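Data card: per-record layout.
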Amino acid sequence: MAEICRLDSGSADFQEQLDALLAWESVSNRDVNNTVNDIIAGIRERGDQALIDFTSRFDGWVPASAHQLEIPVERLLQAWDAINEDQRMALQIAADRISSYAEQQKQQDWSYEEPDGTLLGQQVTALDRVGLYVPGGKAAYPSSVLMNAIPAKVAGVPELIMVVPTPQGELNELVLAAAHIASVDRVFAIGGAQAVAALAYGTEGVPAVDKIVGPGNIYVATAKRTVFGQVGIDMVAGPSEILVICDGDTDPDWIAMDLFSQAEHDEDAQSILLTQDAAFIDRVADSIDKLLPQMERREIIAAALRERGALILVKDLDEAVEVANFIAPEHLELSVEDPQTMAKKIRHAGAIFMGRFTSEPLGDYCAGPNHVLPTSRTARFSSPLGVYDFQKRSSLIMASPQGADRLGRTASILARGEGLTAHARSAEFRFQDE
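The structure for this 434-residue chain is written out next.
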């Protein structure tokens, strides 16, 4: 029987139990921090040579020169031609849907003119150069290439630099093919904290970027947090999460597999069910026991369910919504009769999957919305990655002579109140003659 804890919102210590279940610190290891700091210092001091050394040390192959670290753009097209037709079609469908959704997110310039002729507004511009980190090694994620690269291109970013680790020098054809269809401009066979440092500070061969996006392991996450300020970052992501609210009328096998879909990522992933139906919890538990032995990654799933999973009984669906808003999950499935009405009550979630037929993997791969989502309760203040993350806003202010006089008198009073006389006089010089 698979181990997964059961909680009851009616218990006196429920909140305490829930807090313990959700507790997660994504980057806290002092040894990891020290290692990352040393790697960043090495890249800043020795540039490409440090990249070669770290690639040899961590990826197990020795580039003949720094030039060998860059994968020619022609190689991306070769990868596209090398994958099978089904894979090409799937990547194309996903790319088209992600692009269509991203087009709806583009911010626009706007302005308005006041009666005296003063103009105020906003000008939107794309970032000049963005770095995309793509995980490699045990798993390859072409979907991450699409989800990170396509919104950047829709936003108008002229240059997108992708980095991907290549253990033992092996390249993943699907990842390179995804880079081709997403119009990535340059690709480097580097990974880990050293790739983040190279993107942040630049080396002789790797250009410095303005923002770094994309998931990675704890060393990558720590490096992103460390270089933030030198460059922008998307987020420091924790383990994957899914929260399912179900009214008890969905096939329990479906719900069990939905919980597995995130638990199979790694042992730290979190899968939680909220329901008002105690009998349904038993049915889902039975489905977990029945289906788990069939899973290729059953040991990982079992560990994740045991360590961080939960089947939670609530008094009603309104309370389920309250608990969900507290958890602020990365992925939230509303497997209920009227999901659209319930969705309006959700304040904190990375992505909301509505209805019994909307499985979370649709969002991971091809529905259209981005799968880069806030984790570890950061959906309380963060949003999914999107086109807006690759655009900047500049305020526009153009005072007319009359506006300079009208606004300047207010500015003068406030500036003198702060003791900033030069500010005041700068405005006062533009007063109109009485």
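Known properties of this structure: The chain is about 45% helix and 15% strand. The longest strand covers residues 119-126.

See the next section for split statistics.
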